[in-house]
Design brief:
The protein has one domain: Rossmann fold, CATH 3.40.50.1820. It is α/β, with parallel strands linked by helices. It is 39% helix and 13% strand. It has a nine-stranded mixed beta sheet with strand order 1-2-4-3-5-6-7-8-9, with helices on both faces. It is globular.
Length: 357
């Protein structure tokens, strides 16, 4: 799979060593990616929005390569960054071995600080969405896009129960490591069935990339530990749903929720209700599963580019933010925004009665 459009480098921070990808990195030097302490970015994208992509459990920064390629055609001036979370992809494990959701949020906070990006447009999938919500509580962001967010659900789909054995202390990492070594191809097929609405649409390049990820994780013990530890933290968050309500109530930035209708890990109805609670725009994509950025990158790119540009334009002109916390108005103005597979619906007003989640 060709990812020359989305190269990466390692980034040294006080929270550890991370692998970060960026489109249009200039001469490739990490210093050229960074801004000054006031958050002013260097290079081509000084006057354009910066997007930071956060992958989900078992993923890495390459989960966003297809989407970034399409975004480059839709809006070449967007600066797109993606980080391998600690212990995932090419990032090293954290020095303190803490791979909880809170630790991941602190790590992202540190990466943004070192890169000097200022308020970014945060885009996150699955577990990454749970991390992103925590990050918003730590630092200002320009907007928040949650793709199939793995947020607490009192009735999680049956597909998610397949992940439970990996969360067991001691035995979980051994089970995962044994499975990865025994039959990488079987692991890939199971992951495709679980995460894609139609696994038959997955091309050979993406399958080979997934197989490479499986093989690398099988030979890197810290990758298994990061996966299992992060999963335990994610499950623990489902047992403390009251924290979610506090976190959602604290979000005061424009929000877009994108959800696959055939998601086997996150209930679409749950995502819609969370979008209503956050006064967020909501897009439901038919025939798409848990990773819309991989299954329908063209549709997600159209939705995301419009959302980011509208938000950024309002910031530049000093217009009222979509957050509209004081006014309590509906926050997504692009009602009926067309796409090949999805339509964005406006959220409910904060002042309107909310259905229980």
């Amino acid at each position: 799979m060709d990812v020359a459009h989305f190269p990466g480098t390692w980034l040294q921070t006080t929270a550890g060593t991370f692998f970060v990808r960026r489109n249009d990195p200039g001469d490739g030097r990490p210093d050229a990616w960074r801004g000054d302490p006031d958050g002013q970015r260097n290079g081509l994208h000084d006057t354009s929005p910066a997007l930071l992509f956060v992958h989900g459990l078992g993923g890495d920064s390459l989960d966003w390569a297809d989407l970034v390629a399409v975004l480059a055609d839709r809006d070449p001036e967007l600066a797109c960054y993606a980080v391998d979370l600690p212990g995932f992809g090419a990032s090293l494990p954290p020095p303190d071995a803490d791979v909880s959701l809170d630790a991941h949020a602190r790590a992202l906070d540190c990466c943004i600080e070192v890169l000097g990006l200022g308020p970014v447009h945060l885009v996150a999938n699955s577990m990454g969405a749970a991390i992103a919500v925590r990050l918003v509580a730590r630092r200002p962001v320009a907007s928040l896009t949650l793709i199939c967010p793995a947020l607490p659900d009192p009735r999680p789909p049956r597909g998610s129960w397949q992940l439970l054995p990996a969360a067991f202390p001691l035995i979980g990492p051994r089970l995962v490591a044994a499975g990865l070594r025994a039959d990488p191809d079987w692991i890939v097929e199971q992951a495709l069935r679980l995460c894609y609405g139609d696994p038959g649409r997955v091309g050979r390049d993406r399958r080979e990339l997934l197989r490479d990820v499986v093989q690398r994780r099988a030979t890197a013990p810290h990758g298994v530990d990061a996966y299992c530890g992060s999963l335990r933290s994610l499950i623990a968050s489902y047992l403390r749903p009251w924290r979610l309500w506090r976190e959602l109530a604290a979000v005061r930035v424009p929000v877009l929720v994108i959800q696959g209708e055939r998601d086997r890990l996150v209930r679409p109805r749950r995502s819609r209700r969370i979008a209503d609670r956050m006064r967020a725009g909501f897009a439901l994509l038919p025939d798409v599963g848990h990773v819309p950025q991989l299954e329908a990158p063209e549709v997600v790119a159209d939705l995301l580019a419009s959302f980011v540009r509208e938000t950024w334009g309002r910031e530049r002109t000093g217009e009222e933010s979509w957050a509209g916390a004081a006014a309590g108005d509906a926050t997504y103005p692009a009602e009926g925004m067309p796409g090949p597979r999805g339509t964005v619906e406006p959220s409910a007003s904060r002042g309107a009665p909310q259905q229980p989640l």
